[in-house]
Structure formats: structure tokens, C-alpha cells
Amino acid sequence: MGVASLFRVIEGASVTAPKGFRAGGLHCGLKKTSRNDLGAIVCEVPAVAAAVYTTNVFQAAPLKVTRESLAKGNTLRAVIVNSGNANACTGKQGEEDAYTMRAEAAHVLGVQVDEVAVASTGVIGELLKMDKVTAGIAALPASLAAGGSGSEQFSQAILTTDLVKKEVCVSLMIDDQEVKIAGSAKGSGMIHPNMATMLGFVTTDAKIHPDALQSLLRETTDVTFNMITVDGDTSTNDMLLVMASGLAENRELGPQHPDWESFAAALRHVCEILAQAIARDGEGATRLVEVEVTGAISDLSARTIAKTIVGSSLVKSAVFGADANWGRIIAAVGRAGEPVNPETVDIKLGTIPVLMGSRPIAFDEEEALAYLKGDTVVISVDLQNGKGSATAWGCDLTYDYVRINAAYRT
User: Fold this and answer.
1) Where do the CATH 3.60.70.12 domains begin and end in the chain?
2) Which catalytic residues are annotated (predicted)?
3) Is-contact 338 301, C-beta < 8 A?
């Protein structure tokens, strides 16, 4: 039995499903619309926590504050999040505002200051309207709930140009105890491998060693969130945060635990579903694009090639136009900078072979057109050059992407 078969998906559940967590959200006035723009996840006990962050040199103030909180002991009680304003490239005032958000949240939630993480997303280069933020934080405790309403309000509060919320929850047995892992994420544009314009929040009631959680999170991110792209841009605010309450009462998880691989597979599934949802909801997107690369000299090489293909503007445009132009795919393979035998590459669009042994083969253009008009387009590339494999996700490039980003600030 594979490890993936040892967990089950819980439909309709999200970050409040694991034991010990509440969440909520509200509209404090940062967005011009009435959509929620402030949210929080709170744990009733100190939760073991781990995080990964954007590689962008211009990291936003909230990331500095969150790093500082985690450095105090690898545990958190809460995360406070706002949308509508990134609080990035805002200098000393921006840092002070992020620290104020942390302090105000700690005060109203009755926890220590260094037990609070901070995250922001939205427009870069504008100062937060702190009168609205602090008033919103004061009202947040009343919105917190352990049920679905809490996670619903939180998931709505973190969205920017997203069209839909992204949520997932799974359950598995560890040491005869039910353990749940759930996640909520946002992301639609400015998405590129090495994190994306995304915020991701994962909760679990598993008991796990902090070093093991941090290591597993990095490994998982490399094959999930770091394998998506929408437009080739990496944001200033990206963060993926995991909080583990430990209330499932399993023995502490680590690489030596007999159920470690099952837990790792379940966490990967949660992150993969959220990553796919971000790619599918790319700004203006009409199709999810999945690129599967096999036969590379290594998994790392396969990742690079897969990301190059899925990030190609020409490939993305061809998918939007339902054009079976495999030349754009093979060109992306060739410029990825990885070892490839130019005589052995096979390419399929779904189940339709279009290239075999690096040579074109006849295929039904109408069948390919019909396939490329579907909601999901799978591009399979077999390099026949080794045992490495990887999968990347992205979306098509549409007219609406330009329209949305041409007027993002206005």
C-alpha cells in the first residue's frame, strides 16, 4: 500500500479542522471593496512552527517580524494577516507598523509578542492605514471560530486578485491517533518558482519535532510551491507557514518514526493541492498547465526543465490559443541549461504524441485542438537521458492578465 493511500481528503474543511485552532477575518478598510482584508489563525497552545520565505532581496517588513518571532523558540500562538497592502519597500515606518501589528494582535489575543507571526499582501510601496488596521485587530477576537465559518472568513481575508479561495484538509492515522493537516493559501499573480506572490498557512494537530518540521517543509516546498509559475515574477512578501499544535497526542514525529513517510506524503498532498490551485487561479487564466518531465539526468535537472517549459510565455500563449505548437516546448527544453540528448526527446499533449525521438510525427490537429481547449492541459516530456523526474504547474497567458496588471494600483 502506498503512503498516499494512508490519508484521506476531508471535503470542505480547512485550517480550523486540526485540534486547537480557531480562525477568523473581517473588513477593516484596507480594500476599496467590502471584502475581508484582515484575518488571523490562533492556536490554544504554543504550536511548533516552521516557515519558508521569498528569495526576493526586497523582503517586506512582516517577514522580518515573523523571522524574529520564530527565532525566539520555534513556537507560535497566532498569525495576523492583512491583504490590500503589502507593507513592502516602506522603510522604517513600515517596520514599525509590522511590529505594531504584532504587538496589538498579541495584546487582544492574550499571548506573548514573540508568539505572533505577521503577513501582508497587496500593493507595494504604500504605508498601511494603521488606524484601520489597529481597529480591525481589536475587533478580530469576536470573529474567531473553531468551525468552518472561522476558516471561511480567514480564507477570504487573505485574497487579493484571486477569484477563489484555496483550501484543503487531509486526515491520517499516526500511532492509532487521528492527525489532520489543513491549509489555506492565496496567490494569483506575481507567481514564480522560489516562492510566489503567495501566502500559505498550514495547520496540523500532529506532535512533531521543530527541526524535523522545518526540514520537511523545505523539502516539500521544493516540489510543490517552488514548482509553480504564472508570470515569472517573484514577490516581496511570499511566505509559507506551518503550525503544529501537537494535540493529536501521537508520539513525536521525526524521520525515525514509522509513520514519518505517511505524514510527509500527506503534507506534500496539502501543499501540492494548494500550489495547483494558485496556478489554476492565475490572473486572467483559463487553463491549468501541468508539465511532466521524465528521463532527466536528475530530479533537480528535471525540475529546472519543467519550470522552464511551464514558465515560457510562448508555451503559455500557445496553450491559450489552443495551438499544438510543440516547437515552443522543445525550444524551452533546449534553453533550460540542462544536459539533454537532442536526438531522444518525446513530447505528448495529454495522450497525443507530437514528437518522438526529437522528430515530428503526424497527429490529428482537431483532436489536439479539442484537448487544448480543456480546463487542464498536461504536457509530457520524456528526455530518455536518465531517471530524474519532476512536475511543474502554471497557466495560460491571456489578454486578461495584461488588463488586470495594467491597472493593479488603480
Assistant:
1) 3-280
2) 197 (nucleophile)
3) yes
How many whole angstroms separate alpha carbon 388 and alpha carbon 168? 29
Nearest in space to 259 (alpha carbons), one of 6, 5, 1, 9 = 6
Q: Select from 2.40.170.20, 3.40.605.10, 3.40.50.150, 3.10.20.340 the CATH code of 288-406.
A: 3.10.20.340
197 is catalytic: yes
Catalytic option among 54, 197, 229, 304: 197
The pLDDT confidence band at residue 148, using thresholds 50, 70 and 90, is confident
**pTM of the entire structure?**
0.84
Q: CB burial class (10 A; 0-12, 13-18, 19+) of residue 2?
A: exposed
CA 163 to chain centre: 15
Supply the pLDDT for residue 129.
Answer: 96
Q: Which residues are annotated as a binding site for substrate?
A: 160, 186, 197, 283, 405, 410
Helix (H) or strand (E) holding 334: helix 326-334
Q: Which long-range contacts (CB under 8 A, 24 or more apart) does 251-255 make?
A: 251/174, 251/175, 251/207, 252/207, 252/208, 252/209, 253/174, 253/206, 253/207, 253/208, 253/209, 253/212, 254/208, 254/209, 254/212, 255/212
CATH number of 3-280: 3.60.70.12
The annotated binding site is made up of 160, 186, 197, 283, 405, 410
Stretch (H or E) spanning 307: helix 299-311
**What tens digit of pLDDT does each residue of 38-96 get?**
999 999 999 999 999 887 777 889 999 999 999 988 999 999 999 989 999 999 999 99
Kindly state the cell numbers that stand for 205.
494537530
